[in-house]
Design brief:
Elements (H helix, E strand, L loop, with lengths): L16 H36 L8 H22 L8 H4 L6 H30 L11 H23 L3 H24 L7 H15 L3 H15 L6 H11 L6 H14 L2 H13 L5 H14 L5 H18 L4 H14 L7 H10 L3 H7 L1 H18 L15 H24 L4 H20 L4 H34 L2 H16 L1 H18 L3 H17 L4 H16 L6 H10 L3 H24 L2 H10 L2
Helix pairs in contact: 1-2, 1-19, 1-20, 2-5, 2-20, 4-5, 4-6, 4-8, 4-9, 7-8, 8-20, 9-20, 10-19, 10-20, 11-12, 11-18, 12-13, 12-14, 12-17, 13-14, 13-25, 14-17, 14-24, 14-25, 14-26, 15-23, 16-27, 17-26, 17-27, 18-19, 20-23, 21-22, 22-23, 22-24, 23-24, 24-26
C-alpha cells in the first residue's frame, strides 16, 4: 500500500559516497525482502502439500514462516522508509501557514528517526531478555527478535539520512527544538509530580502532533505509544518493541503479502489487460458502458489481490487511457473508480476483512462470505447510476492494438479459475486464507506464466521485491497499531468507550449503536488510513455489538465498508489522493463528480445496516 503521499523528504543524495552506499544498501534489503517473501510462499505451499496430500505435516513450518514474516515486516518497512513511500496524510499540515511548512516537515523526519532509534534500543533489551527462551516447538525465541532489531536499525539509519539532508538551519533548529521540548516535559513531570502531565494526555498530544506534521500513519501510531512508554517509568522499554513485534507476528497476516503478490502477478502476466479489453468489447457500446466496465473490473480484481490500491492501479492503468482515447471525462471516471474501491472493500480476499477478522476474533471465512452480497448490492447501485449519467462509446477507439478474441477469452478464463479457486478454498475449510493465498501465488506464477509467457525471471524478481515493500508498509501500520492498542488498554480507554457505547445502545437501541459505530469508522477511516481504525475499534466495538445481539459477521461487514467510505472520501481520504495520483487527476477536480457516487454508497450502507440479511444470508446457507 505504499504511495507517494508520504511525508516529503529530501532523501539521501546518490551523487555522494554516503548516498551511493545507502542506495546500494536499500537495494540489497529490497532483494533480501523479496527472497524472504519467495521463501515463505514456497514453505507455506509445500507445508499444505505435505499436510493434505502426503499426510505428513511439517510441525515447524508455521513458526519459521512467522519468523520470516517479521523479517518481511521490518525490512520491508525500512525499504519503504528509504524511498519515502510510507502512507501519510499531509492535508492537516498544508492547512497551516506556508512559513511553517519546512519546520513541520523536518520535525516529522526527526519523529521518524526517534521512533526508529527507540525501537532499535528497545529490541536490543528484548533480545538480551529472550536469550535462553524457546518457542512451544523448541525454536530459540531470539529468532523473532533479531529481525526487529536489525530492521529497526536500518530504519533509523535511513531516517537520520533523510533528516540530515535538509537545509542546515532547519535541520539543526528543529532538532534542538524537539530536544528542548522533550527535555522540558521530562523535567516538568520529574520535578513537579503533583502537576505532571498525565500519560494519556501526552499520548494524545503526540498523536495529534504527528498527524499535524504529516508523519506517515504507521510512525504516528508508534510515536504516540513510544511517548507513553517514555513517560511511564513503570513500563519496561523492552515491552515497546515486544508489542510492535507482536502486531506483525501472526500466521494469518501472511495472507496479506501473498494476495498482494498474486494480484501483481495477475496484472503483469497480462490476465488483467485481456479481461478489461474483453469487457470493453462486450459492454463498450452500452450507455454508461465505461462505468460498468470499471465496476466489473474492480470487483473482479478485488477477488485476487485484496489490496484496494493495487486493484485501483491495475484497473486505472488500463481503463484511464481508454477513457481519454474515447474523449470521456477523466475526472468523472476517477470518481467512479474510487467509489468502486469502496464497493469492493468486502470482496474476498480483502486485506481489511482479514485484519478485521483477526483483531476482532471473527471467522475470516465467514466475513469473506458475508461481504459478497453487500458488495454485489453496492455494485448494482453504482451500475444503475453509471448507466443513468453515462454515455455510449465506440470500443474501437479505446485500443491502440486489438488483441485476438481467442487470447482475450483464454486470459479471462484463467483469471476466473483463479478467483474461483480462492473462493472455493476459503469456503470449503480445506485450507486457511494464508494457505489459499500461497496456492493463488503459485497458480498465477505457473499457469499464468505458461499460458501467456509475458513473465521473465527479472520481472518476477521485481514483483517479489515490490510486493515485499508493499506488504512491509501495510504490516508496519498493523504492528504499530498493536503497540498503541496496548497502551490504550493500560489507560482503560476501551473500558470507558465501551461503557459510553453500551449506555448509548441501551438508550437508543442496537441499530443506532451500529449507525454510530459506522459514523466513527467513516471519520477515523479517513484520518487513520483505514486499517489502524479497524485495529483500534474492531476489538473494542465488536464485543459490545455481540452483547446487543448483533451478529459479528454483519457488524464486521458494515464496519469495513464504513472504513472504506472514509478512506476514499474527500477531502482527506488517503485512498482518493492515491487514486488521483494513479489516474493523473486532481482531488479538487474529482471531488464534485464523485459526490453522487458517494451519496449512493452512503444510502446503500444505511440499507445494509438496517437489513442484516444482506450480510447473513450467504454465510447461513454455507453454514459459516
Amino acid at each position: 500500500m505504499s504511495t507517494d503521499l508520504a511525508l516529503p523528504a529530501w532523501g539521501f543524495r546518490n551523487d555522494t559516497s554516503p548516498g551511493r552506499w545507502l542506495a546500494g544498501l536499500t537495494r540489497w534489503i529490497e532483494y533480501l525482502s523479496g527472497a524472504v517473501l519467495a521463501t515463505n510462499v514456497v514453505m507455506v505451499f509445500l507445508s499444505v502439500v505435505y499436510r493434505y496430500f502426503l499426510h505428513d505435516p511439517v510441525d515447524w513450518a508455521e513458526e519459521v514462516a512467522r519468523a520470516l514474516m517479521i523479517v518481511l515486516v521490518f525490512f520491508g518497512a525500512a525499504t519503504v522508509l528509504a524511498r519515502s513511500q510510507h502512507v501519510g496524510v499531509d492535508l492537516f499540515r498544508k492547512g497551516l501557514p506556508e512559513s511553517w511548512q519546512p519546520a513541520l516537515v523536518q520535525s516529522g523526519h526527526w519523529v521518524i528517526a526517534g521512533v526508529s532509534a527507540s525501537l532499535f534500543l528497545s529490541s536490543v533489551l528484548l533480545l538480551i531478555d529472550s536469550y535462553g527462551q524457546t518457542t512451544p516447538l523448541g525454536l530459540p525465541q531470539w529468532l523473532y527478535v533479531y529481525p526487529v532489531m536489525i530492521g529497526s536499525l536500518f530504519m533509523a539509519l535511513f531516517a537520520v539520512a533523510n533528516a540530515l539532508n535538509g537545509p542546515a538551519k532547519v535541520v539543526y533548529g528543529t532538532l534542538i527544538g524537539c530536544a528542548v521540548l522533550a527535555l522540558t516535559v521530562t523535567t516538568w513531570n520529574t520535578l513537579t509530580p503533583a502537576l505532571a502531565i498525565p500519560h494519556g494526555l501526552l499520548l494524545l498530544f503526540a498523536f495529534l502532533g504527528g498527524l499535524l506534521a504529516g508523519v506517515p500513519i504507521g510512525f504516528v501510531l508508534a510515536f504516540a505509544s513510544l511517548v507513553y512508554f517514555l513517560s511511564d517509568p513503570s513500563l519496561p522499554m523492552l515491552v515497546y518493541s515486544q508489542q510492535v513485534m507482536a502486531g506483525g507476528d501472526h500466521f494469518v497476516l501472511l495472507a496479506i503479502p501473498f494476495f498482494v503478490l498474486a494480484g501483481l502477478l495477475m496484472e503483469s502476466n497480462g490476465m488483467s489487460s485481456r479481461l478489461i479489453e474483453l469487457l470493453l468489447r462486450i459492454l463498450g457500446r452500452v450507455k454508461g458502458g465505461m462505468g460498468l466496465i470499471t465496476i466489473t473490473a474492480t470487483a473482479f480484481f478485488s477477488g485476487v489481490s485484496g489490496s484496494k490500491l493495487a486493484d485501483i492501479a491495475a484497473v486505472g492503468g488500463i481503463v484511464m487511457p481508454a477513457v481519454r482515447r474515447t474523449k470521456q471525462d477523466p475526472n468523472e471516471a476517477t470518481g467512479l473508480l474510487a467509489a468502486t474501491a469502496v464497493m469492493a472493500e468486502t470482496i474476498p480476499p480483502c486485506i481489511n476483512m482479514i485484519i478485521m477478522g483477526f483483531v476482532a476474533n471473527i471467522s475470516i471465512a465467514g466475513l469473506f462470505m458475508a461481504g459478497l452480497v453487500p458488495a454485489a448490492f453496492m455494485a448494482v447501485t453504482l451500475g444503475v447510476l453509471a448507466v443513468i449519467v453515462g454515455q455510449k462509446i465506440n470500443p474501437d477507439e479505446a485500443f491502440e492494438h486489438r488483441t485476438p478474441m481467442l487470447k482475450l477469452l483464454g486470459g479471462a478464463l484463467i483469471a476466473i479459475i483463479m478467483v474461483g479457486m480462492i473462493g472455493k478454498g476459503v469456503t470449503s475449510g480445506i485450507a486457511t486464507s494464508t494457505e489459499v493465498s500461497a496456492f493463488a501465488v503459485v497458480y498465477a506464477l505457473v499457469v499464468g506464466g505458461l499460458a501467456f509467457r509475458e513473465l521473465t525471471m527479472q520481472s518476477i524478481a521485481k514483483l517479489f521485491v515490490r510486493s515485499a515493500s508493499m506488504a512491509g508498509g501495510i504490516l508496519f501500520i498493523v504492528a504499530s497499531a498493536s503497540s498503541l492498542s496496548f497502551v490504550l488498554t493500560i489507560e482503560q480507554i476501551p473500558q470507558m468507550v465501551s461503557a459510553s457505547m453500551i449506555a448509548f445502545a441501551h438508550e437508543y437501541g442496537s441499530t443506532m449503536f451500529i449507525l454510530l459505530s459506522v459514523l466513527m469508522m467513516v471519520i477515523f477511516g479517513a484520518v487513520l488510513e483505514g486499517a489502524p481504525a479497524l485495529i483500534i475499534f474492531g476489538p473494542l466495538l465488536t464485543p459490545i455489538a455481540a452483547q446487543l445481539g448483533v451478529n459479528p459477521l454483519h457488524f464486521g461487514t458494515v464496519m469495513v465498508i464504513a472504513m472504506g467510505l472514509g478512506l476514499f472520501a474527500p477531502p482527506i481520504g488517503l485512498g482518493l489522493f492515491a487514486t488521483c495520483a494513479i489516474t493523473g487527476t486532481k482531488v479538487s477536480d474529482v471531488a464534485r463528480p464523485m459526490m453522487k457516487y458517494l451519496a449512493v454508497l452512503a444510502v446503500a450502507l444505511i440499507v445494509l445496516v438496517l437489513v442484516p440479511s444482506f450480510s447473513l444470508w450467504l454465510p447461513g446457507k454455507l453454514g459459516l
